[in-house]
What does this fold into?
Amino acid sequence: MDQRLSLVTLGVADLARALRFYEDGLGWRRGNQNAEVAFFQLPGIILALWSRAELAKDARLPDQGGDGFGGVALAFNARSRAEVDGVLAEATAAGATLLKPAEEVVWGGYAGYFADPDGHVWEVAHNPFWTIRTDGSVSLEAPVQER
Amino acid sequence: MDQRLSLVTLGVADLARALRFYEDGLGWRRGNQNAEVAFFQLPGIILALWSRAELAKDARLPDQGGDGFGGVALAFNARSRAEVDGVLAEATAAGATLLKPAEEVVWGGYAGYFADPDGHVWEVAHNPFWTIRTDGSVSLEAPVQER
It folds into this structure.
């Protein structure tokens, strides 16, 4: 199995509500027009929003409804601490729940968390040890030092 | 909030068990050496394995333990139907649970699902309408027709 991830699908209770958050709130643009599913092109990968019930059915899994932590966190790496603060403010203004305000963290970065309207967990972090390329893709390599 | 996803963290009950699956079973190579967390460099994005309990605590969320569907599915897009079958066989041989054998799906592709040892859901799909680039990154663009 090659080392790649093509798509992350977030199960949502109400696609229109989720789109109000991701499109109207965060300003993301979907790459398709379909009443059932929304695809967002991200650097190297696609994010999908789809009915949580349909997703569970498609995977042949019972769905207990999804209150609480689902065991997965997504992360948005920002280019600066100020961008972390800005993204958390933007997300909460758009209807996200602030789980943890940004603070300095033990690994040397600065990070906070929000939950989207369906409870999907996003960390928003500034990590000075990884590289965010111009196109937004992320690498474990240390950034080139600016002097 | 720029349209990107930097990191997907999968909460795991036992990192050693998870690494037996992803490293020994699937042949993935981690990009760091740390007893607490494993990072895998994927095209454009990083996959992390970390203690589910620590992840919940970090996000300030109660964790009910995570039996059942967490509302998120990851997907691995394969370059052919044969690769889908091969990946599902490889994953189940490595200890995954086969949730759905691969079959033709209504949207015109071919897909099955497995769950990793912590219950994280992976779809393995051949989607003839999207492009997988040489580096493994994925685009919503239609592939260039080969004739």
